[in-house]
């Protein structure tokens, strides 16, 4: 699948062209495996392998999959917090991988991240004012009074009081710390934010509050999100489109309703079947898809289709031939030889 094909499909669905903010094409991130006294390279871990997708301005693209599927690495490489092994990343017309250090630094205010662990991502020796104001000191020439006013404005935006500015991270709950991290991420008025499992480390009782805050900020500030998560129910509430990753590759990409109501890849179907339904009658009657075994090692992935070792419908073809990532239904892309049969079976 090419970025142009994805853009055309989405445009035809919406009836009007959408502006592509981020284009990821054939992205790779391989980590060397070394062994022996001389630490010779004996193989590679293919954490991200030929990943392609677009993110449209103002939308939320959900990126889901099991632990170890390559979700976080994909987000880090897009932001250039990690170095790509191959492929292309375009952000607002800028070839990110070809930028010099100075040009990349100038672009960074437009690309920010919200980290998973609000306890680890805040410096315990810095006050909230110093944490939220750090991006302003690094990238903006502001008078001290103007910077202080901007910090207070940011704290109000995320639901904290200005008097919290002089406190330290240990004085806040997990949810409040994540709000501090969000305030830091939006300080420079970015266009794009990678949300790397921003609610995974929070109590269930406050996860919805943080997600609702992200949605409110997206509407108010015109933000674009890559929302990385393993929680499919939360992604459905948050995302416009969803990409499903397995062992370094995207196996399905679709509009959120299409993917949740009519998943075509066996892996997506298995993930869906594991999500509880708040209706005991429906829950009892649902058919469960139980995957056998663990995710294979990314340093030695299976031949052909990487999911074949756990797939309930795998055949000899799946072992010898890698499935093409193709559009099976308008706007729904699937990497499965038998996606057409899955579509017919699902109606």
Written overview of the protein:
This protein starts with a helix and ends with a helix. Strands 6-7-8-3-9-10-12-11 form an 8-stranded mixed sheet, with helices on both faces. It is globular, with a radius of gyration of 21 Å. It has 347 residues and is α/β, with parallel strands linked by helices. The model is unreliable at 1-14 (pLDDT under 50). Helix content is 35%, strand content 24%. The chain is built from 13 helices and 12 strands.
Fraction of residues in helix: 25-40%
Rounded to an integer in angstroms, the radius of gyration calculated over CA atoms is 21 Å
Shape: globular
Order of helices and strands: HEEEHEEHEHHHEHEHEEHHHHEEH
- Quaternary organization: single chain
Average predicted confidence as pLDDT: 90
* Strands ordered across the widest β-sheet: 6-7-8-3-9-10-12-11
The end-to-end span amounts to 25 Å
Quote the beta fraction. 15-25%
Q: Largest sheet, described in full?
A: 8 strands, mixed
- Count of individual beta strands: 12
Sequence stretches where pLDDT stays below 50 over 5 or more residues: 1-14
Sheet/helix structural class: alpha/beta
Our count of helices gives 13
């Amino acid at each position: 699948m090419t970025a142009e094909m994805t853009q055309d499909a989405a445009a035809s669905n919406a009836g009007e062209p959408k502006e592509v903010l981020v284009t990821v094409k054939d992205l790779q991130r391989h980590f060397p495996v070394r062994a022996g006294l001389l630490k010779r390279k004996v193989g590679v871990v293919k954490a991200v392998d030929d990943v392609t997708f677009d993110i449209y301005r103002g939308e939320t693209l959900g990126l889901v999959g099991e632990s170890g599927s390559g979700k976080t690495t994909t987000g880090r490489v897009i932001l250039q917090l990690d170095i790509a092994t191959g492929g292309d990343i375009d952000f607002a017309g800028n070839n990110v991988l070809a930028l010099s250090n100075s040009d990349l630094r100038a672009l960074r205010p437009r690309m920010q991240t919200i980290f998973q662990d609000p306890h680890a991502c805040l410096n315990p020796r810095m006050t909230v004012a110093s944490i939220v104001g750090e991006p302003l000191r690094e990238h903006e020439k502001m008078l001290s009074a103007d910077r202080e006013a901007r910090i207070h404005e940011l704290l109000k935006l995320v639901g904290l009081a200005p008097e919290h500015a002089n406190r330290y991270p240990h004085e806040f709950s997990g949810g409040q710390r994540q709000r501090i991290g969000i305030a830091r991420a939006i300080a420079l008025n970015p266009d794009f934010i990678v949300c790397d499992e921003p609610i995974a480390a929070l109590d269930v009782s406050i996860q919805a509050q943080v997600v609702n805050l992200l949605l409110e900020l997206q509407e108010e500030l015109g933000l674009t999100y890559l929302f990385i998560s393993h929680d499919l129910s939360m992604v459905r509430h948050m995302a416009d489109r969803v990409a499903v990753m397995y062992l370094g590759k995207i196996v399905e990409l679709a509009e959120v309703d299409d993917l949740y109501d009519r998943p075509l890849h066996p892996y997506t179907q298995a993930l869906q079947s594991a999500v509880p339904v708040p209706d005991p009658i429906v829950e009892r009657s649902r058919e469960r898809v139980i995957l056998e075994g663990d995710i294979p090692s990314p340093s030695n992935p299976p031949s052909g289709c990487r999911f074949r070792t756990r797939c309930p419908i795998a055949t000899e073809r799946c072992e010898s031939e890698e499935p093409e990532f193709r559009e099976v239904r308008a706007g729904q892309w699937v990497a499965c030889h038998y996606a057409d049969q899955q579509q017919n079976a699902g109606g």
